[in-house]
Amino acid sequence: MLPLVLYDIISNLPGNQFSPNPAKPRFVLSYKDIPFVTIWVEYSDIHIAMKSIGAKPIKRPNGSDVCTVPVLSDPNTGALITDSLEIASYLEKTYPEKPVFPNNSEPLIRAFDSAFMSLILPSIKPLFQRSMEIMSPTSAKFFIGTRSVDVPLPWDVNFDADWKLLEKAYNTLYEWYQKTDGKWIMGDTFSYPDIVIACQVLWYKRVLKEDEWARISSWNGGKWVQLLADAEKECKLA
Ligand SMILES: N[C@@H](CCC(=O)N[C@@H](CS)C(=O)NCC(=O)O)C(=O)O
């Protein structure tokens, strides 16, 4: 089997990885024992680099086309897939062993993915601020320019209110997890929503300052740090 190719975002951090969307396919590939290599792309070059390999664009809020990462190229089938959820869906259909959508749960997982994004989006500003700080100056400028269209500046004020909002979102998530008996959202069965949440927490861990990360680590009895550690172990990434 030829290794698949995952396009992810470069950063100033050792090992590069920070962005939650490309992290999701990384976890899925690793969980399914599928060989892959990563190509690291400068944030400001994503559109041009992904367009040049023929990736499908999505619409920005202003209606213009934009190519995003993650993109996955599978030389075994010729597939070129954009969007973390579509990549997970493709991998599940093409490589069904070790399912991440167990028991025909893909429709419900798609609903979860959208509900989770809506839950955390209102408190995204501090994360955008910290992400921009670990990019090259050119990418940081580009990131502010494009992301501030749907998440208006300033990102660095009102930190406390944003943290409270984020904590509230995780309290809701914690209530969902409390409805099952095991450590995963489907009880003893590991699945894609656990990956989605773990990748979000990984983002926080990678970009936040120590005191900010300590704050998140303390929420819900350490549930989120533990979930990240468990998911990394399950996906053989730790
Ligand atoms: N829903 C998409 C979101 C992808 C996305 O927004 N990717 C960002 C990086 S995390 C991007 O490539 N942005 C490029 C740009 O704004 O020019 C997914 O889950 O893959």
Automatic annotation (TrEMBL):
- InterPro entries (UniProt xref): Glutathione-S-Trfase_C_sf, Glutathione_S-Trfase_N, GST_UstS-like_C, Thioredoxin-like_sf
Q: Name one Pfam family in it.
A: GST_N_2
Annotated GST N-terminal domain ranges read 9-99
User: From which domain of life does this come?
Assistant: Eukaryota
Q: What SUPFAM superfamilies does the record point to?
A: GST C-terminal domain-like (SSF47616), Thioredoxin-like (SSF52833)
BP terms from Gene Ontology? glutathione metabolic process; L-phenylalanine catabolic process
Q: Which Gene3D superfamilies match?
A: 1.20.1050.10, Glutaredoxin
**Entry's Gene Ontology molecular function annotations:** glutathione transferase activity; maleylacetoacetate isomerase activity
Give the matching PANTHER family.
Answer: MALEYLACETOACETATE ISOMERASE
Query: Per its record, how is this protein called by name?
Result: GST N-terminal domain-containing protein
Q: Which organism is it from?
A: Suillus subaureus
What is the phylogenetic placement of the source species in the record?
Eukaryota, Fungi, Dikarya, Basidiomycota, Agaricomycotina
